Backbone:
């Protein structure tokens, strides 16, 4: 397990994520500090601004997949204090949705009912309630747009806008896919056939439709896992386009490849809400919602937004997210090869002195030598086999951050006896005896499970995550008694596509 220590000199008082902390009266970004929050959308009712966000938490903040377990509603009346109304909706409301896939969502109100448009990785759905805080039920009992529908692809990130005449419009889509359509009055059926929009420059995801002074705006993110990009926008005189390309409005964000925006007018001022990875333990998969002011020019174009640590109404005098050290995923390696950790240093470029960092052995039988030529993917060699705790620390002269990682160094390789690329499988060994079984998962998820070997159940437990960004691979291990000749292996409970390799070995 890793421990993250962050000394934020200029952002004093920040709470560790995952622990409930009192909100302070000073607004500063990220605005929600006791949870990791992502994919913000907004909803204004009378004098209250509501933020609707996913809530996520993973131990490996730079490794796919997202682990977003619910949607929370937060409210503010002053842009300084944000009240958490809890997990108002989660995937259990939708029969078709996986538990950790609560991706982007938005609430709109129509004729006294609240419609909550949601998505997972491939389906768009809608829940309905008579009250903002629920309870919500799946309005269709199935997705509004199904991942199996060949007419669509990349079904994520729904945005719904209700025009002055009461007509509602939905846009959604990720990758190179963006679709838009009018909704029927019932809000759960398309009014016509969705159109595919193909001319938005560098479109990737997170569409957000809004209107100002009879001009329609479609903001979106150009950022993906391979190339971080800004939020950009287009305009049109009708809600379904054609769309005219405009400008970038928000640069890439600190410590997250996604940025997912919403734009809202509240009490006469305009704001952009987005996420970054600025909280301790944050990263691409532990994100945090921020808010900054957004300004229009007289001709209706949008000015480029300055991202602040001060937030919309707070102390904006000093902007520094501080350096961020991530030591990497706990790993194993051989003494003769050493290890490359998927560690990294993140900084926002505002520094008092050149960024400097160091690796140290906190605990362990020997010494390390480190290739320090880059700010990520450090190669580390060890003088002795054994268990090590390593610490990576960094400073920019203003603030310091450090993080720890555990590495188990083996003197000699295990002897691999036999292996299979799938489960269930049959594997043969030459001698009866005690063997080690390693299951390689298809993702970094580390849920323990039970393996049935020759009809007998053995618990397999997480051992380590194999180095890798997207996807990473969790490795689980158990000791089993095998017979001479053929042995049968299957998971006690069917978990489709979970295992990519089964490896039988002896400790040498
Ligand atoms: O949170 C999951 C996905 O990441 C969202 O649906 C995208 O917009 C990106 O923020």
Residues:
């Amino acid at each position: 397990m890793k421990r993250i220590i962050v000394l934020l000199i200029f952002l004093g008082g920040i709470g560790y994520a995952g622990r409930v902390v009192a909100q302070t009266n000073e607004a500063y970004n990220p605005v929600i500090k006791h949870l990791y929050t992502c994919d913000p959308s907004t909803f204004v009712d009378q004098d209250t601004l509501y933020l609707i966000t996913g809530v996520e938490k993973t131990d490996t903040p730079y490794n796919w997949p997202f682990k977003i377990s619910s949607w929370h509603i937060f409210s503010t009346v002053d842009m300084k204090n944000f009240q958490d109304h809890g997990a108002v909706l989660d995937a259990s409301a939708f029969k078709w949705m996986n538990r950790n896939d609560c991706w982007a969502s938005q609430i709109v109100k129509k004729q006294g009912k609240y419609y909550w448009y949601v998505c997972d990785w491939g389906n768009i759905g809608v829940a309905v309630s008579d009250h903002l805080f629920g309870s919500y039920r799946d309005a269709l009992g199935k997705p509004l747009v199904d991942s199996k529908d060949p007419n669509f692809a990349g079904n994520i990130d729904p945005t719904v806008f209700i025009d002055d005449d009461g007509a509602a419009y939905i846009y959604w889509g990720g990758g190179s896919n963006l679709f838009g359509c009018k909704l029927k009055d019932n809000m759960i059926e398309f009014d016509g056939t969705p159109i595919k929009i193909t001319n938005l420059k560098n479109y990737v995801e997170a569409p957000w439709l809004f209107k100002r002074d009879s001009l329609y705006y479609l903001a979106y993110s150009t950022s993906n896992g391979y190339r971080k990009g800004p939020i950009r926008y287009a305009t049109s005189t009708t809600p379904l386009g054609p769309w005219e390309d405009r400008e970038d409005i928000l640069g890439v964000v600190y410590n997250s490849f996604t940025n997912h925006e919403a734009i809202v007018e509240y009490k006469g001022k305009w704001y952009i809400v987005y996420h970054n990875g600025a909280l301790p333990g944050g990263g691409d998969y532990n994100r945090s919602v921020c808010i900054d002011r957004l300004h229009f020019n007289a001709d209706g174009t949008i000015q480029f937004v300055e991202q602040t640590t001060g937030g919309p109404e707070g102390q904006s005098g000093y902007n520094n997210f501080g350096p961020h050290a991530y030591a990497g995923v706990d790993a194993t390696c051989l003494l003769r090869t050493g290890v490359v950790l998927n560690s990294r240093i993140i900084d926002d470029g505002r520094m008092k002195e050149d960024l400097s960092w160091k690796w140290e052995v906190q605990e362990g039988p020997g010494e390390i030598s480190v290739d320090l030529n880059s700010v990520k993917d450090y190669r580390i060699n060890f003088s002795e086999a054994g268990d090590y705790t390593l610490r990576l620390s960094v400073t920019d002269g203003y603030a310091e951050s450090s993080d720890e990682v555990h590495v188990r160094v083996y003197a000699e390789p295990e002897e691999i006896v036999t292996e299979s690329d799938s489960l269930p499988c049959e594997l043969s060994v030459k001698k009866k005896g005690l063997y080690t079984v390693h299951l390689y998962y298809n993702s970094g998820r580390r849920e323990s499970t039970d393996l049935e070997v020759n009809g007998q159940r053995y618990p397999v437990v997480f051992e380590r995550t194999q180095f890798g960004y997207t996807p990473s691979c969790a490795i689980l291990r158990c000791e089993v008694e095998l017979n001479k000749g053929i042995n049968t292996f299957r998971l006690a409970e069917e978990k489709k596509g979970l295992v990519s390799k089964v490896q039988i070995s002896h400790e040498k």
Notes: The domain at 32-294 is CATH 2.115.10.20 (Tachylectin-2; Chain A).
